[in-house]
Fold:
Amino acid sequence: MNKSVNFNNIINYLFLFLSGFICYSQTDEAPSITASGRQVFCPGNSINIVTDFTITDTDDTGISEFFIQISSGYQIGLDRLELSRNYPGIATSWNQNEGKLMLSSANNTEILFTDLENAVKDVILTNPSLNVTEEKTFSFTIDDANYLPSTDHFYEFVSDERITWQQAKIAAENRTYFGRRGYLATLTSAEEADFAGKQASGAGWIGGSDEETEGEWKWVTGPEAGTIFWRGAVSGTTPNFAFWNNNEPNDQGGNEDYAHITDSNIPNIIVGSWNDLPNIGGTGLYIPRGYIVEYGVPGDPPLNISASTSIYIPQIINTVNAEVCESGNATISATASEGEIFWYDSPIIGNQTEIARGSNLTVSVTQNTIYYASININGCNSLPRTPVTITVNERPTIINTTENIICSGSALLSAESSSGDVYWYETATSTTPLFIGESFQTPNLTSTTSYFVEANVFNCSSSTRTEVIATIDNTIPSFDVAKSSYALCIDIGNVNLETINAQDNYTYIWKKEGGLLPNNNSTINVTESGTYTVSAVSSAGCTSPEQTIIVKDSEKSNLTKEDVIITDDSINNSIQIANLNIGSGDYEFSLDDINGVYSDNRFFDNLSPGIHTLYIRDKGGCGIQEYQFSILAYPKFFTPNGDGENDLWQINGFDRSFYTKSNIYIYNRFGNLLYTIEQNNQGWDGNFGGKKMPSNTYWFRVVLTDINGYSLEKFGNISLIR
Structure:
């Protein structure tokens, strides 16, 4: 988002620029400072911060103020700079927040350079703590601006309540420091952010903004102008360095486009961290109190107005722990950046005397023990002491093994240790392990082979080795199938295929048309016809040849009247299944006995008149169909003479339970209806109208309907003999 600057602000900026130009033109020659000293610091003691110091000036003999600051490694509340002896003409002032000591004139006159040199040489660092940071840097400057040696730049907080960010940017760019040009600070490292943040006494503007593109924070001032340091909002990322306060930047109100150092009085503040605000700032603790100026851009004249020294504590840069098996001698070591290693058995400073000196310590131990290394230089021991550990390992054991039986090839063996690694050996006395790890894949084997394992923890091995055997069993599995073929009854929809006579506890591989089926049991339930194969796999992994099982679709037969030819009223009455397609099954037949002998014969003859039942059985067990039919015989003559033989003309084989409807008509040779045999009549007695009909040839017509709904019509002649 773009912001515009009003006309009144422009006038103010021009005034500031001109004022800065006038001030710059009147600057005198700057003094030159040199300081030396990089010293080892002994915690709990004080130390002079320089070994030598000089200040010279071609046009002056003194100075009104001089500043010494702990520019890095400062421990607020612990570190303090002070004069070790009294200088009547010099007053001191300690700024705890910034870690800065000011030397100023005590009598409204300048401090002579000669007195200042002596005083600086008598400035000492005191710190009552024994836990001191590794290194501290001291900077020396002739003005209130703070010098950071790592950047070679000066930093200054300029108080100006309610100044806008735009105004602060122009004001900073119009400030100079002994010829070095200023700009709103660009803080590109944690050290720089910490250093500048300690100077801000309230909300202070710095040179970051996302005015150009919302959410893309850039340094827009100084040599780093255009450098992106943050993308996004609260959960954004930095390509280099950023130091936002908690839950910032939040762009509250949609116009917080400028960065500032957050007031340290805000609750839960991260000291020195950043926040985003509008150009005019906010309210309360978010009212702008000034801005941070950074001095130093490419092309600035070289200055000797600052110098730096440092103190440090030697460090133990490396330690080597040790392990032993159950008990014995162990050697630990420590390496120091400088000085001599002293060994102790306690981390606490007290009456403990040193155990040994030197980089290495060899001791006999029976339990876990910690020793402590300290650096000694000229009788000063580094703190805190560094722990170095000797671990006494319990002798491990093999707690579990898994052997393997295979048909051939490579076997997978495993072993578990109580602790440490598992070592695999070829023999019980081998010295070189074949493999290290819990699972061991053997090479291809042709015979049963033993391997030996031990547990090992840092060369602490189990007391004995455990045998693990890879057994070769190449016996091919043997089994049978219950049936080589099965019928899959359509009305049931599934069938179990079975194996039998297995000689061992096998698993099975089932396939259909070559495709693997998800079943390894001795039986399988299938729902589709087709060609199935099964092979057995032994516990050793040997596989048998495949056996084939055919599954065919089948069903109970569906024989109808149209499928049969019935011959009756003949010398050889018979029934013949003429249609071969009476179902999808394979069928066999039996007549008049469901439990009788079944055969593939589809023709039955020499049938007596009467009701017969044909039984059609599916060979696959899908069921038996019962087909009932009638064999009829029509007598050619009858003799109604009352002798009890052939007195009535009736149809042989007629069964009223089989025929639901029957009509039999008797005609003379002229076609006149003489008699009708109803359903319940026994037959014709040869009479008509109460009179005996003479011997002659008569005609009959038979119309029958059976229980299946099939109709039969028959014509013929009969002889009446008297």
Q: What stands out?
A: Residues 1-27 have pLDDT under 50 and may be disordered. The first strand starts at residue 32 and ends at 36.
